[in-house]
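Q: Is it fine to ask for two folds in a single conversation?
A: Yes, each is treated on its own. Send the first.
Q: Here.
A: Result:
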Amino acid sequence: TEDELAEYAAAALPEADRLEQAEVQSEEKALQSAYRAANGAGMALVLEVRGYDSTPMEIMYGFDADGVLQGICVISDNETPGIGKDVIENQEYLSQYPGKTADTIGEVDTIANATKTSRGIRDGAETAFSLFTELKEEVLGQ
């Protein structure tokens, strides 16, 4: 819904006034949807990401127009309560992502006892960086 999209955007791309869906072509199977900020603040990509559970997490990664990660928002997950779920709800952990670039995303640490979940989020970010490069002209016109 529009309200949910606004909630996700507030976490993933805070400078965006609102997100508009962009029609894109990509062979990346993890990509679920792409959005552009109506005010030109950047784009957001929704990916299916593998964590610990066999059901993928759905995560929105937000980028400014220069390709700097602005934030992430976990839209849905089925991670283990008390382990992987703690990673998803850990704002201190998630706060490592804003400001990262394709060159610095590897600096984000995994969390002991929840490595599959935290590695899945980071691997998703790496895929999102590749997709940003692939899609930025199509989505942002640059």
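Q: Second one now.
A: Result:
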Amino acid sequence: MGRITLLRHGQTDFNATGLLQGRVDNPLNSIGILQAQKAAQMIGPVDRVISSPLKRAIQTAEVFNTKIELSEQWIELDYGDWDGTPVASISKEVWEEWKRNPNFAPPNGESLYKLGQRVRSSLESFKSISTEHVLIVAHVSPIKAAIAWALGVGDEIGWRTRLDTASYSQIRMDKGLPTLTKFNITHKT
């Protein structure tokens, strides 16, 4: 059986201070680098590494010491005008609308529905893996969309899940059928 391991990048200063990061291209901080190293130890050997093109994901992927394929399909949700703003600055009413409506998009940003489409498109290419262990290093929203795909549910399920920095989740592929086998596994640093 094939495996897809989805690894969220390690911590950045934006993560640590509660700022929406989206497409802001921040590097890992010192904690994030340690988290990435610990995650690599827990995950072990992989056959292939795919990464979001953002610096924080690439730095996390680099600890696996193998060739990295960059993929725009795994880039974080575009928060548009909200990039770099505190999560707490978004009104409760707006958050509630966002949770109810997968087509909602931040001003000049991307909806969870659109993000889900691009992630699902990428995942369809992995349905035929039989023994390969593929590592995808990405961000919270694309990984939640991948979990929704594995479970056969809508993208709104992402609001009912939590992914810690440098956590990994795993999907087993058995004859084209995805099965979620691990979720939000971390090594506390």
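Q: Anything structural to flag on that second result?
A: Two points. The chain is about 30% helix and 20% strand. The chain has a mean pLDDT of 95.
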